[in-house]
Structures are given as C-alpha cells and as structure tokens.
Amino acid sequence: MTKKELQSFLDKVNFLRRFVSNLAGKIWPLTPLLKLKDTERFVWGAEHQAALMPPKRGKPFRLYISASEGSIGYLLAQNNESEREQAVHYLSRTLNVVELNYSPIEKLCLTLYFAATKLRHYMLPSVVQIISKTDLIKYMLTRPIIRGRIGKWTMALSEFTFQYVAQKSVKGQALADFLAHHPAQGQEEELEVEIGMARMEKNYWTMYFDGSSTEARFGAGVVIQSPQGQRWQFAFQLDFKCTNNQAEYEALIIGHEILKEMKATRVLVYGDSQLVINQLTGEYQCTSENLIMYYVTALNTSDEFSRISFEHVPRAKNREANEMAQVASGVNIPDSDHDRVIRIKRRTLPALAERGMTTQVSSFEITDEVNTAETDWRYPVVKYLHDPSGSHERTTRFPARCYLIYHNELYRKGLDGLLLLCPSAEDIKVIMTESHEGICGTHQSGVKMR
To answer: Molecular function (GO) terms listed (predicted)?
Structure first.
C-alpha cells in the first residue's frame, strides 16, 4: 500500500467514523504514515497491517444468511483474538422476477450460493459454519434426484466445507436481516463458478484431542468421526516424561497420523488447550524451547491435508477425548506389553434384577412426591438429591450424600447399613410426645429405638 492509497482509504473510513466505536484508537498506528514527507520512505509494517485486523486463515468462519420476500442478504463473521465475533463481509441484493416465485427454502439456498460466489477466496480454505433458520445442507443433500436449480447449486457448493449450526446468535442474525431488508440495487445477475468434484455427503472429518500428565504416567486421547458419522476412540500411554502441553501436542500429532491412515483430506480439529490451538492458528507465538519442535511437527503434519481448521472448545465439549487421555494415564501397562485391550460392555439390567430380586433405590432415583416446604430442615437435602449438579451451599452438598429417597420418604444411610427415617419437624414433635407418654413402652437404647 502506498501513501496515496492509504489517504484514500482513511477518507472513506472517516466518512463512517460516527458509526465506528473508538475509530481514532483503531487507526492510530496508521496516522504517522500520513505525516511522512515526500523525501521519507513509506514502509508498511506488520503493526500497520494488524490495525486492519484481516481474517485468520484456517480459523472457522460463520455465515449468517437471511431471505425476505423480495431480497436476500448474508453476513460473514469470524471470532477475533478476544473470541468476540467480528464482521468480515456483508452484502445483499434484490430478487428478480423469476426469483420472487421461489419458495422460502429455495431463497435461502440461493443466498448460500450467492455468498459462495462472492466469498469463494474467504470460504474455500476454511470450514464455514452456516447459521440460518433451516438446515440447508441437509435439505440440499437429501434430495432424491439432483436436478434443476437446487442440483446446480449443490454441485457448485460441493467444493466447500460447510457445517450447519442452529441459529442462536441474535446479534449476527439481526445484521443479516437488516441487510436483507435494505438491499443494494443493481446486483441481480448471478455469477457462474467452476464446478469441481461433487460428493453428496458431509465431506470433512472431525477430530477431538486431549493430553493428560500425572506424576506417574502420561497419556493422549483422540476421538475421530468420519463424514458418515462413524466414531473411533483411541487412548495412548506415553512411555516417557512430558509436560501437559507436550502431551496435548502428542495427541494432536497422533491424531493426524491416524487421519492420514484413514485417507482423510478435510479435517476440523477441536481441542480444549487454548495454547495449542492459538499457536496453530497463528494468534500466539511459540517461544518455548520445549514446544517449538512439537509446533513445527504439528504444522508439517497439518500441511499433509488439503484443508484443515482448528477450533478451541471448552473441556465439557471435549469430554470424550479427555476420558481417553485419563484412562491412558491411569492404567498400568507392564513393560512386556505394548498395549492392553479394555473391553467395555453394556448391561441393560442390574445384576439383582437378572436374579429376580428388587434393587435398592439409590440417591439419584428421586421423585417429586416428597413434600417438603422451604422452612423444613429436609428441604435443602431433597433439593440436592433432585438436582445434584445445581447450585447448592457447601454445608448442604457434603452431608446430603448420606441421604436417599426410598418409597417417597427421606432416609439417612447408617454406618451399619440401616436406613434411618428422617421425619419432619411436626412429626418429630409427635414422636417425642408419644415416646414420653409411654406408648412405645419403657425408654430403650438408641440402637433398639431404630
């Protein structure tokens, strides 16, 4: 970029300054370049390019699409370094006379095709998450016969890697709806795109990875899902000392090797290690001497795929890979063995039920038939037993584990295995009154009173 081009660009940006928050702070790195004299050299550096915040290559995009009665619109967005959604490109156009007769679902398919023709250079290298009111991918790929305009659009979109996401983001969808109701005129013609090999199925693999590092052993877990929905779980025990970040990289590289053996070409990788994911997407720099070789190896194995994207997910969404890593780091494998087969079988009935015996109701088999008021001392315990994962006080969580509900009554589990009935405050008064009146006979010891 030259100084003249920069001046022209900033003139256009300043026209919209009242619509952009803190515009002066955002373009502050660029202003010193405007003060350069003609004899001084104009140098466009990395700090100037960072002020424009270009999209990150390899990071998933989000495409919001919307169609109204007479127009269509889309918004392409991507999460920035602070994981906040940032708009990349938005556009809309009016529908011609023929397109006005399309059904609502066909108008949405037209919007997706329109966005692909305009944003091919953005969308082709990365996974694109389609966010709309209808699952367009399922609609287009489950047609019994591919023909007509839907068949044409399906063939043209087969080179992209799409993933449908249910509409949840009100902010992004509101912008797309606004653009659809305020379209740009003079863009009614359709553009033709080159059609490549068409595959009428979900055309990318999914991989989850996680590493585990303990004082005794180290493990790596990988979960792979094929485009057809088949899943494989892998657990590897690392027979050498490594840090947790090194174990994460080990799991990632092992997953790449498995995917290559499965002939995968397009991959979407999920991991809960923010350090590893951000290093691979270029948001973080790898400066650790212990990780630099892992980082280079991971990049080299990633280049073996035609298309690969990395995305950070919370640990709760990476639970299956985490369990595989925990199993690998927790199982003791003798030195003479290279692997160990762990068989996991499913049993649908308890062992007692198979022998014709009734099972004792556990503390998790809770019914709503236990009537307790908020003033009752049993209320916090019953509330915890009904929803153990909810928000409870610490003074309630630990004691409540000694209680269970059986036949709609609250019991406390004794040390000798007996169940002690937990009456309400009113029932306690009745019991104490009857005991002192001698209805139960003479006073007995605590064990006999049970």
So the answer is: nucleic acid binding; RNA-directed DNA polymerase activity; RNA-DNA hybrid ribonuclease activity
